[in-house]
């Protein structure tokens, strides 16, 4: 199975080189045509391939994905290979950002122009409307802005929630304080009234005693 897989990779690299897909009779079973093997298999070690081989492999997968109508969705290997290429370009560029930019741009635009899978070549349907590398950059930029706005909104909502909780706590404490003060006031009124009634009763009693004496 390992040999079969390696042969498929070599075949895809060759297709990427020539941009010609071999004709396969309908009656003949073909792993290349089926394409389902790539759902669970990725190039296990991209370091085994040169940067040029990875570029050709990427192109071969893009072309075959469309030609054979591989139904792989976001599991497309185009995204996996493209990420590895970008990492290699970044580490091998020797600071030449212009060269790295145009090489990356070429790959993205090849993927956009030749894809048959809306998830290719990035693995995300968010980029399905992109036709150029600049389109892709704008979508990424807008997504970053939206995420920043969302994060700011979430922070504001959290701050508002904390303030509301603090306000509710303050109101609850104020109500408890007012309730305690009203209770003390009622108890004081009762005591005053009892003292008043007691004082009046004592004066009447004293008056009656004087009359009787």
Structure description:
With 213 residues, the protein is an all-alpha fold. The protein folds into 2 domains: 2-128; 132-213. It is built from 6 helices and no strands. It has helices at 2-18, 31-34, 51-67, 77-92, 97-114, 133-212. Helix 1 (2-18) crosses helix 3 (51-67), helix 3 (51-67) packs antiparallel against helix 4 and helix 3 packs parallel to helix 5. The radius of gyration is 40 Å and the shape is rod-shaped.
Key phrases:
2 domains; 213 residues; mainly alpha; 6 helices
Low-pLDDT runs of 5+ residues are none
Shape verdict: rod-shaped
Q: If helices are DSSP runs of H or I spanning 4 or more residues, what is the number of helices?
A: 6
**Cα-to-Cα separation, first versus last residue:** 130 Å
Number of E-type strands: 0
The SSE order reads HHHHHH
- Helix coverage percent of residues? over 70%
| Total number of domains | 2
Question: Largest sheet at a glance?
Answer: none
- Structural class, by secondary structure, is mainly alpha
Query: Approximately how much beta-strand content do the residues carry?
Result: under 5%
- Residue-averaged pLDDT: 78
Radius of gyration: 40 Å
């Amino acid at each position: 199975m390992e040999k079969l897989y390696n042969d498929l990779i070599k075949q895809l690299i060759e297709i990427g080189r020539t941009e010609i897909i071999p004709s396969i009779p309908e009656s003949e079973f073909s792993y290349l045509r089926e394409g389902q093997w790539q759902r669970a298999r990725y190039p296990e070690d991209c370091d085994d391939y040169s940067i040029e081989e990875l570029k050709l492999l990427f192109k071969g997968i893009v072309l075959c994905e469309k030609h054979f109508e591989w139904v792989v969705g976001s599991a497309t290997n185009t995204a996996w290979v493209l990420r590895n290429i970008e990492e290699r370009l970044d580490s091998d560029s020797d600071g030449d950002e212009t060269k790295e930019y145009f090489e990356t741009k070429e790959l993205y635009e090849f993927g956009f122009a030749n894809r048959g899978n809306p998830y290719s070549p990035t693995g995300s349907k968010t980029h399905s409307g992109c036709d150029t590398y600049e389109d892709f950059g704008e979508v990424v930029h807008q997504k970053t802005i939206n995420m920043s706005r969302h994060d700011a909104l979430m922070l504001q909502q959290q701050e508002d929630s904390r303030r509301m909780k603090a306000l509710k706590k303050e109101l609850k404490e104020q109500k408890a304080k007012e309730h305690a003060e009203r209770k003390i006031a009622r108890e004081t009124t009762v005591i005053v009234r009892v003292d008043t009634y007691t004082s009046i009763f004592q004066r009447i009693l004293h008056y009656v005693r004087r009359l009787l004496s």
